[in-house]
Each structure stands twice: as C-alpha cells, then as structure tokens.
Amino acid sequence: MTQDTGIFETRSPLLLRGVCHNDRIVDVVVGDDGTIAAIGENAGRGHEYDHVIEGRGRVLLPGLVNTHTHAAMTLLRGYADDMLLQPWLAERIWPLEAHLTGDDVYWGTRLACLEMVATGTVGFNDMYFFMESAARAVDEAGLRAQLSYGFIDLSDPEKREHECRATEGLVDAVARMANPRITAAIGPHAVYTVSAEGLLWCAELARKRGLGVHVHLAETETEVADAVRATGRRPAALLDEAGLLGPRTVAAHGCWLDDAECRLIGERGATVSHNPASNMKLATGRAMPYPALKRAGARVTLGTDGAASNNSLDLFGEMKTAALLQKFAWNDPTVLPAHEALALATDCAHAALGFTGGRLEAGAPADLILLETRTPCNTPLHSAVSNAVYACSGAAVTTTLCAGRVLMHERVVPGADEVLEGATGAAIALVSRARGDA
Amino acid sequence: MTQDTGIFETRSPLLLRGVCHNDRIVDVVVGDDGTIAAIGENAGRGHEYDHVIEGRGRVLLPGLVNTHTHAAMTLLRGYADDMLLQPWLAERIWPLEAHLTGDDVYWGTRLACLEMVATGTVGFNDMYFFMESAARAVDEAGLRAQLSYGFIDLSDPEKREHECRATEGLVDAVARMANPRITAAIGPHAVYTVSAEGLLWCAELARKRGLGVHVHLAETETEVADAVRATGRRPAALLDEAGLLGPRTVAAHGCWLDDAECRLIGERGATVSHNPASNMKLATGRAMPYPALKRAGARVTLGTDGAASNNSLDLFGEMKTAALLQKFAWNDPTVLPAHEALALATDCAHAALGFTGGRLEAGAPADLILLETRTPCNTPLHSAVSNAVYACSGAAVTTTLCAGRVLMHERVVPGADEVLEGATGAAIALVSRARGDA
C-alpha cells in the first residue's frame, strides 16, 4: 500500500520502475506533459524522481478504451433484467429515464468513471442526454471521453429542430471547456429513430466541425427488415448515403451486418464497436460478424453498452465475452484469439476515437495500467495476454494512469466514497420520483 | 481491515452482525459445530461472541459450488489457447500432462482452492489424476469437494484393470481421511473413452459404496455421432444402460443432448453441469439445452471446467456467461434469469454433490459468503441478485466461510503467498520438464 498520496496530484516526472511488459522488465518515465518520456530496460536509471511506482510483480498494459456506452445508465444497473426488449424499454427503462435530471447524469457518469478507472479503462465513447453534465463528470474524473448527444427526431420536424440545437449546444460547450481529454461527437441515434433529413444534418455538422460520429447500427433483425421495407436499402447503406460512414464513425453493435455492408464499412474506414454482453443479454439473435469485418479490413473495437443492458463496464469481462462469443457463433476456437481481443480494447479503440494512446512507446500519451501478478488469475504467468483476456477481471488492475495523471494506485481512487454515495442517492431519488409518477 | 487474525482459527460461536439478505438486515450465528445456529433480525442479540464479523454494507449469499472442474489444471492456465480441439489436446495439453506429478496436482489444486475461496466458491466436483494429492490440498484449504479419478480405459483390458485399481485406491484413501468435507465419487470419463465393461464396473462400484458419479456427456457433436454409429444409441442412453444415470450423477456439458435425452435425465433425477465458458472457448457448436432440461425437470448446475479451457474458476463470471449464452442461444432474453443463474451455482449445486448447504437457514452448514456493497458493481443496489450475477466478479467477495470456518475475511486468505509461490514453481518446472522431453 503506497503512503505516497501526493502521487495523485503530481505533474512532475514519474517513474514506473521495473514493470513487466511483453515478457521484459522495463522502466516507464512519464513526463510532466502527460506523455511517455522513455520506456525500456533501465530507462529510468540515473535520474531522481519525486514519485516512483514500484512495478515488481506488475504487468504493464495500455489503458483500455470503451467505444460504446451510455455512462449515466449506471444508475439503472440491476433495475430491470431478463425481459423482452420492448416491455423492458417501454415499461421499465423509458419511464425511469423520463425523470432523469442533469444532476442524475452527472452522478451516473461519475459512477461510470469510477468503475472504469477501477477496472483499467482510460477513455470511452458516450451517448446520452444532459451531456454537459456528463462532460463535467469526465473532466473531474480525469478520463478521456468522446461525448455525443443522442439525436432522435422520429421524423418530427419540431423534434428535429430541438435535437439540432441540443447537439450544437453540446459541441459548443465541449469546445468552451478546452479540455484536451474531452471531445464532442455527433450522435445520430440510429436509422430507425432519425429521419433522412436528420442524418444529413448530422453528417454536415460532423464534417463542418471535424467531429466523430457515434451511431447504433444493425443491432436487431427488425431494424434491418424495417429499413429494407421502408427504403429498399439496408442500414449501412442509409448511413453511407447520408455521408455518415467515414474514418471517424463508430457504429455500435453491427450484429446483422451482411457481407456487403462489412465491405462497405471496410472501404469507408469506419469502425464497428462490438458489444457482446449486451447483445447476448438482449438476445439480438446474431453475433457481430467479426470474421467478415476482419476480412473486409474494417476496424473493430469493444464496448460494454450501458449498465442497464450488461450490467458491468469492466472491459476485461467484455474482452473474454467477445472472444468466447465469436468462437461459439462461428464455430471455430481460433477466431478472435486473446491478442486480438486485447487489441480491440486498446490500439484499435484509441484510434477509433481519435485518441493517440493505446501504444506503449515514447511520445505516446501515458495512458497505462498495471495488473497484479501475485493473485490467482495471473498465476501461473505463462502468458500475460491470455491471463488478461481469459482469466482476470478488472479487479486485477492496481494502477491506472490517464494522460500521465495517476487516477488509481494500489486500488485507491481518491474521492471514491463521495461518488458511491452521490450515485446511490441519485438512483434512489430517481426511482422514487418515477414511482410517485406511476 | 480486521485486526482479528484469530478469526481464521476459531471454532467457537461466531456472529455475522447486520448483513443484508433478501433485502433485510439479519444476524447470522455460526455454531461451534460449523452450522448456522440462528439467522434472523437481531438473532445475535443478547449473547457475547469471541469473534464478530461486522456485516454493515455487506450482502450475504450462500457459498457457491462448482460442479465440474479439473482443479489442478490451474497450472496450465494460459499455456495454450485459441486452437482447434485436437491439436490443442494432442500438441499442447497432453504432452504437458504426461509430465504431471502428485506434487504438481497438490500445488495446482491448492491454487484452484485459493482462487475459489477468493471468489466465493466453497465446494467443487473434481476429476483428474493423482487425486490423493488433490484430497490433501482440499483438506488443507478447508473447502468441500467430491473427488473422482478420471477413469479412461480406451477399451484396453489391461488399462481397465489399472483404472479400476486407481479408482478403488482413491475411494479407500478418501474413506481413511474421514474428513466430512471430502467425498469420493466414481469418474468414468465419458462414453467415448470408457468401454461398456468399464462403465458397468463404475456403476457397480458407485452403487456398492453409495458414491456419486462424475462423467462427461454430449460435449461435442462428434461424441454423439460416434456413439450412434458404434452402438445405435446416444450417449445418455449408454450411460443409462450401464446404470450410471441416477440422482447422484453429475454429467458435465450436455451441449448436444436431444429432447429425449433431456427427458431421460429428468426421469432419472440426474444433474447436468453447464460449463458455458469452456463450451464457447472450445466452440462445441451448440449450447446446453437449458430450456429443454428445465421442462424435463432435470437438475442443472454450473461448472467452470478446468483452467486450461476457461481460464478462470470464478463462478460469478460463469453465472453471467451462462445467463448470457442461454439467452443468446435460444434467442429469448427471459431464459435463465438472474435468480435462476444464482440457484444453479448454489442450492442446485450443493444438492447435486450431496452437500447439505446452499440454504441460509438454521441447521444448515455455515457455507456462506459476504459481498462488498461499497463498490461500483454493487452501486446502486436495486437488486443484490442481479448485481451478483450480471455486474460483479468474484472480486466483490470479502469473506468466505465453509462449514463454519472462516477461509477468507476482508479479502485476506491465510497462506495465500505460499500457495502462489508453490504453484508458480510447479508450473515452471512442469513446462521445463516437458520442453526437455521434446
């Protein structure tokens, strides 16, 4: 247990001494600009450091990135499960969400950030409401995030006007924050909830402001069938026609993509965020076609979806579930091996959101995590990558750095109790307001 | 953090004060005979206790039971993954296993027991080799186990004779231990590895000695096809003809059971141990038909399989994977809800192995665990059962009791470091011996 509480505040150079990485023992020097100043055998030797993290018995990995979630839905964790999708949404989730306030979103996002820090996630791709409150939570928690307002117009021009203003409001608010860890994205919810005009407006704004796009795509068979019936075209083609399919697009789910859509996504350089636990829990009926997307050269990443449909934000669990589901769905144990599962949650995910981390090399942001090895899930240590993906949960993470700042060390996250209390209070009050309404 | 290290040694009455169970705050009094002396609101009031565990902010659950594993295979964790079944076995697993010693099995089983204690599992159903060494490890670790020698004769009479002697040897050795937590079972490996004569001999010994049966059943499509081709009958019928399908039988996997086999298992009162992570990782091609087994009234339980094919022994992960896989496989989010997933790992599993725990009531063995609630996976606490199954890993467990003995408290397991060192040394030496041989 460290006694060095100053480690959470320091901006001076920091040494991670003797951590295990790729079967070698290396030092990592974190510069005062939040990047990796040096990494390598004895790279820290010959200098004095105000703060040293002893890495003996620790595995070094890049910090993980969650490419699809609705962070504030942590407040709904365990509120309703094991139901058919429509009654689950209409009877349980939407009535509660109707009572959400900006304060709720702040506390729900703080709770999500705490869970992510504690399980080794350093950044995420979020879509929800009251996103200025989410931005404040991310700012305070010290993580990276790409934040989008969930644009839903249901083909109603008046609603569309409202959604356009809300989207612009978030983009401007994030610009005003000038926090290099926080970016805005445009969040057209899906082709079945946003009109053609709405999709075009979103594409235009993303292009004009140089922003990413966060969208749901081909999650259910119904979504695809409805699109084909209404327009004669499948959802990926509709996004592409609107100009929404490009290198800065993250499309979540993709369960029902066909081969042509996989090729289209690959050609456009877009990303599909795989969310295996949510897809299995809600029984989407088909696994995202990872082999076809890989053949097409599309970028694939990992997300947890919101805590109402998972119900965890621990990407270690998600890496394992992804590897297991893909093997099972395509009947081949060689599909999505451990090192690819780790890549989906690290370098692929950082790149998809325009982050420059995910690589452990000099000059890259110091977004990194340490895992305990003196614990059953890392014993024996035949393969650190296999253990990380198949044996460990996020509970193996002892230390989390984002942009060079220590967010957790020896499993201590400063301020955790306040977040747990605030989020508990917000969740109880939310349910109570919804009950009063019923 | 408790300062009360005597708590690990005490046999005197122990009070768990103010734990949360079924949304109520209760006391649990553990008697010096290892059973629950009293449970209820203020049940501990008015007496003095040498040792008190403060339960505020802790959820009480029955200890979990793992109904199919090969515990010592922890030594092979992460040694080989993501391969087709045959080369995985023939090129990686079997060559290593050929070098196993009794000492290896002792350390591998100690490591498995440590992992189980740390993740809230109080008992398990084991099948492997050098099982006297496994029995010694279980005895020292303080868990419950039903231990079977993996009987494989490959229709060779000489081999069969050897397997009969090894099986009897284990049964006698366990009887001599006279440890009420440890029982022997008969372990005919599977219908494709044991001759008809071998199956009959196993059934006869199980009947004569009043012991359980632990067998693999219908794991792969090939197993079923081969049985039908060779005998005209499916594997469950072959077990039944040999007299191996009864109330004390635990058949692992069951992925390829058809409806008639599910009904037969239900009629015989036998148990099927679901091992979803292993089945998905090895791509067995079909999920165990839980809905059909449930309709047939068969008992279903949960297992992790060995750490080479999972690679974790954390039943919290397995509960979630089971619930997710069953929903996905049968395309229905209402299949295997959270409370059933918990039952599979608790009361159903205790009963399947002839243990009398799994229920939290006076007179039952004090096999119980406490979960931390001041942690993200249990925040908010809309449903303790949903959080246990869908949000938490075994890392949420702070305290584990088996037969009234405290095996872990505040996440401290006495002797853990020695086990991690011993198992690491054994694993490294094993790989080195196998390399020297190659």
Properties at a glance:
homodimer; 438 residues; alpha/beta; Urease, subunit C, domain 1; 4-stranded mixed β-sheet; 16 strands; 40% helix; globular
Summed up:
With 438 residues, the first copy, chain A, is an alpha/beta fold. Helix content of chain A is 40%, strand content 21%. Chain A has helices at residues 85-97, 102-118, 131-141, 157-177, 196-209, 221-231, 235-241, 259-268, 276-281, 290-295, 315-329, 338-345, 347-352, 384-391, 416-437; strands at 14-21, 24-30, 36-40, 51-54, 58-62, 64-69, 121-128, 144-151, 182-188, 212-217, 249-253, 271-274, 299-302, 368-372, 397-402, 405-408.
Can you walk me through this structure?
- Two copies of one chain form a homodimer.
- With 438 residues, chain A is an alpha/beta fold.
- Chain A has two domains: 5-62 and 360-410, Roll (Urease, subunit C, domain 1), CATH 2.30.40; 64-352, TIM Barrel (Alpha-Beta Barrel), CATH 3.20.20.
- Chain A has helices at 85-97, 102-118, 131-141, 157-177, 196-209, 221-231, 235-241, 259-268, 276-281, 290-295, 315-329, 338-345, 347-352, 384-391, 416-437; strands at 14-21, 24-30, 36-40, 51-54, 58-62, 64-69, 121-128, 144-151, 182-188, 212-217, 249-253, 271-274, 299-302, 368-372, 397-402, 405-408.
- The longest helix of chain A has 22 residues, at 416-437.
- Chain A starts with 13 loop residues before the first strand and ends with a helix.
- Chains A and B meet through helix 2, helix 9, helix 11, helix 14 and helix 15 of A and helix 2, helix 9, helix 11, helix 14 and helix 15 of B.
